[in-house]
Design brief:
This protein is an alpha+beta fold. The protein is built from nine helices and twelve strands.
Length: 305
């Protein structure tokens, strides 16, 4: 890797300190639950247009959602998020509404708008499918380039098929839908051949100093899937999120990773794919153990109720 090592690419997603050196962090709690479900930085807490559904304790650095018989937790989050959107408080909200996502690990179902998740530090769910084929040149991987109008990572390379997982879907259902919408691939092809390959967990600190719109604590669970297809299968852009697809050799993907051409978390998905397929090994990568560990961090929030 002539420019960025694999470890550097993984650290771009998993860079939140494992100790308490990140400075003051607010913990967000749901009603009747002593487990935190999100981390928030002070500037986000200060600027959030809190309603009386929430109690902010600046001394103990906590945000507690109150139990109210007349208001569900989902409604309480909707109120404060709607106010933030209407008043254009945070750039990361794009000034618009988004799909509903679940708070992972909540003891009772709670949903929030997708774009607001990182403001509260909730765990986000994603699903990524890597499609590859074997030719006389060896393994070849289908890699899309994101459209230039995308709000995040325009023109970057991406996982073959990827999407955030909304509340009404399982990760696999999301992969099937995104394969159709992004790559014109039929559901029966995906359902027949796809292989679940685990999940990645990481936590990062994005700051305005490294190009983020706001300083946020980002926690992700990414469900990964593989699909080997014949040479006759060719993904074709269907919606306006993908500009084009390339069939790239392993060496070409390695070179693109080194040039930092991939969307940040899609680079991590590709590194995981290389590890699972024996392309990156303990014998050829000095940082192998740290790379694997950072892609499977134990998140400080519950993942089951």
């Amino acid at each position: 890797m002539p420019k960025s090592t694999y470890l550097d690419l993984v650290k771009a997603c998993d860079n939140f300190p494992y100790d308490d050196s990140a400075g003051p962090i607010y913990k967000l709690y749901l009603p009747n639950d002593d487990r935190p479900h999100g981390f928030m930085l002070p500037e986000i807490v200060e600027n959030m247009p809190w309603t009386d559904d929430f109690e902010v304790d600046n001394e103990n650095l906590t945000v507690q959602l109150q139990q109210r018989p007349s208001t569900s937790s989902t409604t309480a989050f909707a109120r404060v998020i709607n106010s933030a959107i209407e008043n254009d408080v945070f750039d990361t909200l794009h000034g618009k509404h988004s799909e509903l996502y679940p708070i992972l690990g909540a003891r009772h179902p709670v949903q929030f708008e997708r774009f607001a998740g990182d403001l509260f530090g909730f765990i986000a769910r994603g699903a990524h499918l890597t499609i590859y084929t074997v030719t006389d040149r060896g393994m070849m991987i289908w890699v899309p380039r994101r459209s230039s109008h995308m709000f995040t990572y325009p023109n970057k390379l991406d996982t073959t098929v990827a999407g955030g997982v909304p509340a009404h879907q399982t990760p696999f259902e999301n992969v099937v839908q995104e394969a159709d919408e992004e790559a014109s691939l039929p559901a029966d092809l995906i359902k027949r051949g796809v292989r679940a390959a685990g999940a990645l967990t990481y936590q990062g600190l994005s700051t305005e100093s490294n190009g983020a719109k706001e300083s946020l604590i980002v926690s992700d669970v990414v469900y990964v899937y593989d699909l080997e297809v014949g040479q006759e299968v060719k993904p074709v852009p269907k919606d306006d999120e993908v500009k084009e697809f390339y069939l790239m050799s392993v060496d070409e993907v390695k070179a693109a990773l080194a040039r930092e051409e991939f969307k940040t978390n899609s680079a991590v998905v590709m590194i995981d794919f290389f590890i699972r397929h024996g392309i990156i090994t303990a014998e050829n990568e000095a940082d192998y153990v740290e790379i694997v560990t950072r892609m499977h961090r134990k998140l400080p929030f519950p993942t089951t109720g």
